[in-house]
TrEMBL record:
Residue ranges annotated for the AB hydrolase-1 domain, each copy included: 96-250
InterPro entries documented for this protein: AB_hydrolase_1, AB_hydrolase_fold
Name of protein: Alpha/beta-Hydrolases superfamily protein isoform 3
Domain of life, source organism: Eukaryota
Gene3D superfamilies named in the record: alpha/beta hydrolase
Amino acid sequence: MMMAAVKLGSLPPAALGGVTVTKKCERSSGGVRVVGECGSGGNGFPSFLPKQVEKIKDPFARNLARRIKRLPVQIECSDSFIMSSCVQPLIQRDANPVVLLHCFDSSCLEWRRAYPLLEESGLEAWAIDVLGWGFSDLGRLPPCNVASKRYHLYQLWNSYIKRPVVLVGPSLGAAVAIDFAVNYPEAVKKLVLINPSVYAEGTGNLAKLPRVVAYAGVSLLKTFPLRLYANLLAFNGISLSRSLDWTNVGRLHCHMPWWKDATVNFMVSGGYNVVSQIKQAGEAENTTHLW
């Protein structure tokens, strides 16, 4: 399963959460009334986050976790909505917004150090959880295949952003970005691809696994030792205590009750295969590669 994780994308430190009473809040955004879940639980964390957020020590992770909210996003061309998790900018500006995707099996919290810097630079930044990962409300699990992830991202953009964006995708997030830009070119001004994982042809043989084996592999993917090992591979010169803390950050979204089902759903669906779209995306968009 570790090889599968490397093939699908890196496992960066991600997520956070806290639990208590959920409240509804309203604000006006571009003339659209936004009603989303933003009530606070313990220590100011949104109530929908897993309670394990309380154990996180990283101040950047804790601060960004407090900013996460859920916005209603329509799906499947119907009246159904998903309360979708993201970090929303405090101020909307005239310039093209920056939309930050995340790596495979991660969340918006992997941007915990970069996001404050983008805001300090005066940019309007959105850190969005891709459907099937992060901290959305997926109690009634929708399909978590590529088409569903793409449409969900489009609906979020169409409902709340509504302007061409600078779309940033690291690792497997680069495949998400390319797929989105090719299918919805009107939504993307520029692509920024960071260490892109875009040449794998989907999940390969993993899509053919019996479901019982797929669930066993996904259960392994959640384990603390595997996540810790991924952190040790990714970061040099950090203390053991910090590595342990970042591991807790990176696996926090795995505590969402739907996480295992959503991950298996994505795996058996075949995953992202954007090899044939890379040239098209590069020609159609102003694309920057950060290797």
